[in-house]
Amino acid sequence: MTAKYSRTDDFFVNTADLSARRPPPRSQNAAVQILQLPAVIVASYLAYIGGTIFFWNLLNDFPAILAIIVKILASKVGIHLDSLDTFLNIFIVNITNVVEAGWLGFLVAFPYIIYSVANGLYVQWRTNIPIYRNIVFLSDITQSVFLLAVIVGLYTLMLNVKDNTQIPINWNVVSRRFSVEVSEGPDFNTELTWLKDIPLVGDSLANVNVLRPGTATRALMTGVINTLRAVLLALVFSTLLGIFVGIGLLSNNWLVRNLSTIYVEIFRNTPLLVQLFFIFRGLLGVLPTSPRDAYKLGDFYLSGRGLNFPKVLTTDTYPYFLVSVIAGLVVGIYLWRWRLKVQDETGKPANTLAWFSMAFWGLGAIGLGLAFAVGGSPFKLDYPVLDRFNFSGGSRWSSGYLTLVVGLTLYTGAFIADIVRAGIQSVSYGQIEAARAHGLTSNQTLRLVVLPQAMRLIVPPLTNQYLNLSKNSSLAIAIGFYDLYNVATVVQNQTGQAVALFAILMGTYLVISLLISLLMNMVNRSMRLKTR
To answer: Measuring CA to CA, which residue among 451, 416, 461, 417 is closest to residue 431?
Structure first.
């Protein structure tokens, strides 16, 4: 029999208590099992939200209709609600936005509220636990109320902005002509020919107004690409710099340790904007402005205008090489996981890096040889050539782009270095002594013992620094680099649509931050301890 919970027990009953005393019965009905799948639940909720948005014009009138119905019913039974008329007039006139937002919030949170109450009542019927003592129910209801409050607050803010903005919000601003030249990144005045290659919808997408050449949307897309170019490169360089400097902070070498400390203290305790100005004006500003006077390092040319270098182009044999590299990556990941499994089962060294490298570089070499056998090298170089006034051909990183990447790298690298230092010091010294007792060298101890354990503590704060780096890239406007924020500011100045443009900015930066968080959470889960 199912034991009933005594009222003399703890006031709140948590999930562990319920599971230990009364495991919930599993339904044997296939339809019920399908409906309980998380994917089905999420899809159903999204469909409900979509229906709410689609019928919002009809649903939005429901509170007013309900008030009229109440008034009619009251008059039918002889109750005169003159005070209700006055209250409704004041209520509707003064806080219409709050009523509309509250109604929307209730509709969005309604399924979760119903689920929470139904589940709480079911547990009460099954276990005799009062619903107000079920901590799971209280947690669900709290989340429902919080969701409702967030939606009410955001929607009220949006309606107030809409009502109080002198210039009407026009989301079609993104389809207007963008007349400013963006000096770096993909040319937004050319056709997106690859859209037509998409099956079924390619021709329709190519004819969408906002995606046509020269529009503000295309300029914003160029800004996004420029932002991602700077952020991704700075992420890689700042991580490498932070790891080396963080290890240097703990070095036994006096010079290395103190130089690392000086670097961290300077770049961590000065504003990033000041550092960007210093790099842009103080360092790049002293370089020759004329391309003819540029410093030449092989086929690389460095001047005050930026860095010109050879551009790598693909040939007709590139697909053979690409397929081989992808196959090597897939096989390498499989071998990596297989070797870890062998290590768990037998205790033999996994040597994951050796197996992965063997598969990746081996298949890559086979693909390269196949490409040469079919028709030559899969790559060719387009070298920069000095013309009368500037370089033609090759690739170019502008002075603004170099400043942004170097500034973000040095600034974020200082924070990452301190995180690495703290992570290494968190590892028990007994682990190091045990590694030395087994005959491991200092480098092996650091690589095989210390860093794998320290990474579990390094990754969470490292994620915060990556997020800060992506958002700090918006300071590119101060040095004239056309990132997303700079392009959006130009569009805003041309159109006056500040609300629409900043909403697009917030959404784009939010997506970038969520993607970084998603990837870092995956890394964090892979680093956690796995118990048998």
So the answer is: 451
3-class SS letters over 433-445: HHHHHCCCCHHHH
Distance CA 225, CA 248 (A): 34
What is the Cα–Cα distance from 323 to 386, expressed in whole angstroms? 36
pLDDT bin (cut points 50, 70, 90) of residue 388 is confident
Q: What is the mean pLDDT of the chain?
A: 83
Contact 377, 315 (CB under 8 A): yes
Which among 420, 448, 453, 414 is positioned nearest to 237, based on CA atoms?
414
User: How does DSSP classify residue 199?
Assistant: T
530 and 452 Cβ atoms separated by less than 8 Å: no
Query: Could you tell me the two tokens for 115?
Result: 């689920």
pLDDT at position 329: 93
Residue 271 has pLDDT above 50, yes or no: yes
In this prediction, residues 161-187 reach a mean pLDDT of 80
Q: Which strand (E) or helix (H) includes residue 360?
A: helix 352-374
Chain centroid to CA 434: how far?
A: 40
d(CA 444, CA 292): 49
With CA atoms as reference, report the closest residue to 137 among 150, 127, 151, 124: 124
Tokens 């090759």 locate to 394
The DSSP 8-state label assigned to residue 134 in this structure reads: B
Determine contact, residues 494/179, Cβ cutoff 8 Å.
yes
Residues paired with residue 215 on neighbouring β-strands, in sequence order: 177
Q: Tell me the C-alpha distance between 392 and 384, whole Å.
A: 6
Q: pLDDT by residue (tens digit) across 443-486?
A: 888 878 888 888 888 999 999 999 999 999 999 999 989 999 99
Count how many Cα atoms sit within 13 Å of the Cα of residue 142 in the half-sphere of its side chain.
7
Tally of CA atoms within 13 A in the half-sphere of 324 that contains its CB: 17
7 phi and psi angles, rounded to 5 deg: -75, -10
